Amino acid sequence: MKKGLLSVIVMAVVGSVLIINPSVSCAQAKGPIKIGFISPLSGGMAANGKDMLAGFELYLEEIGYQAAGRKIELIVEDDEAVPATGLTKTRKLVEKDGVHVMSGGLMASTGYALAPYIDSKEIPMTYPIMAPDDLTQRQVPKWIVRTGWNSSQPNHPLGEYAYQTLKLRKVVIIGLDYAFGWECAGGFQKTFEEAGGKIVQKIWTPLTTTDFSPYLAQISKEADGVYAMFTGRTTLQFNKQFQEFGLKGKLVLVGGGTLTDEHALPSMGDEAIGAITALHYSEALDNPANKKFVKAFRAKAKKSASYYSEGTYTGARWIVEAIKAINGDVENKPKFMEALRKVEIKDVPRGDFKLDSYGNPIQDVYIRKVERVNGELQNTVIQTYPKVSQFWKYKPEEFLKQPVYSREYPPLKP
Amino acid sequence: MEFLLVQTLNGFSFGALLFLLASGLSLIYGVMKIVNIAHGSYYMLGAYVGLSVILRTHSFVLGTLAGGLAIGVIGLLMERIFLKKFSLQALPQMMITLGFALVFRDLALLIWGGDPFTLPCPEILRGSTRIYGVVFPIYRLFVIGVAAAVAISLWIFNDKTLVGAKLRAAVDDHEMAGGVGLSVPLISGCMFGLGAGLAAFGGVMGGPIFGVYPGLDFELLSLAFVVVIVGGRGSLKGSAVGSILVGLVDNFGKALVPELSYFTLFAPMAIIVAIKPTGLFGRE
Question: From the CA atom positions of chain A, what is the Rg in Å?
């Protein structure tokens, strides 16, 4: 009789504690918010991938790895810049580690590869860097928000700039043979040809190329400019070899932003000076938010701040804002996803931006020229195209009628 | 005409680097029958060590010597301590070298980080020169020269010196060689070390052109094996001819049919293996 009474009293006490302090015990039972992150930490794209990780970590450090009263746990995996590996590691993060949200990824091909899986598992994911065009155009996934950019976005204005300001008329395209290369070059070709220019040749190089001389030797003699699309170690080698084979003095070099992005620029020499590229960021941007970010990043990572680091820094902030908006209730996936789509932030290093109705940022695009300032190479901003959307000046419905930019599209004019 | 000249020169400069890389592998694979998966790693580590030395001493020569010697020693130790236990057992040896390759790769990532580097080119060799109206980098011509010098030295060493004779004896019939008093284990170890050192030397030489970065090891490994298979294993002449052939075919292939870039390297290999399985100058 006494034992029974004792247990009833104990249960009553425990029960009242639970009722009186529901939030405390609930939060303790929930555990940390888990963010899964993939990027290449080895291989030819390791420099890009490590910048991405450092940028992401920088923001989380600034908020002490805490949001909405819960701790944040960051679980990182190396995707080696291979889409199949990215998919495997994402599976591991989602199914084994039980992350509440995924982020990261570098290659456009990885971007396309992950989308069906993310949608089938209904896990919110953000793409702060991966830029495949179609994911916010013709194949919009339900569970992915893009906080970075899309491949053709900065290249549309560059095509116009090349014709009108640089007065180029005949350009050869040379770039990496995969979705990102095709889409960046495609954007350039469309606007350059619409302005009156002509693309005379398209040369695609395999991702594993180390020696570009066979490709450089093919560049048509009638060209006055070259549009190049390279990133990671390939941009180091391309720029060097472009100069070594005597092309630098003869042809104007323009390119996608990654050609001279800060992940590789400090390792380059005078061969990079004068290259004109377009991107939605430059470390040299002169606004308070960027100055603060660059200072903090350089102190942490001891290297220049590239668009990769800014992308994930702002990307991490985006996720945290969504977490705060729903009071940390990340287990409610549809609610979390809604919040991710509705985030609005100000004082962003690259300049403030909003998402369009397809889920892609509308942001300023900068035309940059590589110059040596105070002994360091930098991407000096020489012109700004404000509030550029992924559709440039076209109406979305009109733009979506054309196929996505690919190896064959836009085709070469006869 | 210009196109032909540039591609030929380029094919030769690529072939020169392949020779430095593959001659070592040819020795190791041909003589000791070891499938050395870590061979590409030697090239990469040599480039990394060379990079560190060059950055500190500003001497390219010191860099190449340091790279070659350091990795040569590593190769020697690898063979003496680990591989000799499984003499003539192909599979265990391959697994050991694979394990080492993975360890080297992670070690390199730990020490030098993930960023790609280009080795600084020596001042006097910078810039380009005009040859019959074609602009070609001076450094690549230098690489061709160095590889030719190395090839000739190896040939003299092999054919004309006593040490070379001992080497050849150990290669041809190691039981008899041991029987006449040659220290076959020591010779094997030194050969492995030499092969590793050559690859590492090639790494530093190739550094200003290709740079060094994680992943270089496996990217070049397949090229090295193609040269050895095409040229015939164990044959120095085979490595030389194989490297030039592969260099030229690869360059012209990429230049003429870029859509088949992935294919141009392995096509000659497939053809030669079909016609003459032991390679152009191989035996057995």
Answer: 24
Question: How far is the first Cα of chain B from the last one, in angstroms, to the nearest whole number?
Answer: 42
Question: Under an 8 A CB cutoff, do B109 and A209 touch?
Answer: no
pLDDT of A275 over the 70 cut? yes
**Cβ separation A203–B258 shorter than 8 A:** yes
* CB within 8 Å of chain A, chain B residues 131-150: 135-137, 139
Q: Which residues pair with B212 in a beta bridge?
A: B117
Which residues of chain B have a CB within 8 Å of the CB of A232?
116
Rounded Cα distance between B231 and A179, Å, is 37
The packing angle between helices A288-301 and A46-62, to 10°, is 110
Torsion sign across C-alpha atoms A397, A319, A49, B95: negative
- ∠ CA A227-A228-A233, nearest 5°, is 170
Q: What is the ipTM of this complex?
A: 0.74
Taking the model in full, what pTM does it have?
0.81
Identify the pLDDT of residue A26.
Answer: 44
Summary mean pLDDT of chain A: 90
pLDDT at site B44: 94
Best probe of the B interface among A45, A210, A230, A250, by most B CBs < 10 A, is A210
B220's tokens: 């070049």
Nearest CA in chain B to A249: B135
Q: H or E stretch including A390?
A: none
A174: nearest CA partner in chain B:
B258
Q: How far is A49 from chain B (nearest CA, A)?
A: 9
Residue of B nearest to A208 (CA): B219
Tokens matching residue B197: 């050192």
Longest dimension (CA), chain A: 102
Whether B251 sits inside 8 A of A214 (CB atoms) is yes
Which residues of B are less than 8 Å from A41 in CB distance? 114
Position with higher pLDDT, A130 vs B262: A130
> Rounded to whole angstroms, what are the CA distances from A174 to A153, A200, A204, A322?
18, 11, 6, 40
Pick B159 or B234 by higher pLDDT. B159
Distances (CA, A) of B80 to A130, A186, A252, B45, B120: 48, 56, 55, 19, 34
Average pLDDT over residues A2-18: 64
- Single-letter amino acid code for the residue at A129: I
Peptide bond into A410 cis (omega under 30): yes
Average pLDDT value for residue range B103-132: 84
Q: How far is the CA of A5 from the CAs of A8, A12, B10, in angstroms? A: 5, 10, 93
Q: In angstroms, how far is CA B105 from the centroid of its own chain?
A: 18
Using alpha carbons only, give the angle A27, A29, A30 rounded to the nearest 5 degrees.
65
The pLDDT value recorded for residue A28 is 45
**Rounded distance, CA B29 to CA B90, Å?**
10
| Alpha-carbon span A340 to B103, nearest angstrom | 41
Residue range B118-163, pLDDT digits in tens: 888 888 888 888 888 788 889 999 999 999 999 999 888 878 888 7
Q: Are strands A225-229 and A252-256 parallel, antiparallel or unpaired?
A: parallel
- Checking if the pLDDT of A24 tops 50, the result is no
Q: Which of A44, A204, A240 minimises the CB distance to B213?
A: A44
Q: Which of B114, B210, B258 sits opposite A237 (nearest CB)?
A: B210
Confidence of residue B10 (pLDDT cuts 50, 70, 90): confident
Distance to chain A for B3, nearest Cα, Å? 7
Residue A204, Cβ neighbours under 10 Å: how many?
A: 20
Helix (H, G, I), strand (E, B) or coil at A249: coil
pLDDT in tens, A103-117: 999 998 899 999 999
Convert the pLDDT of each residue in A71-80 to its tens digit.
Answer: 999 999 999 9
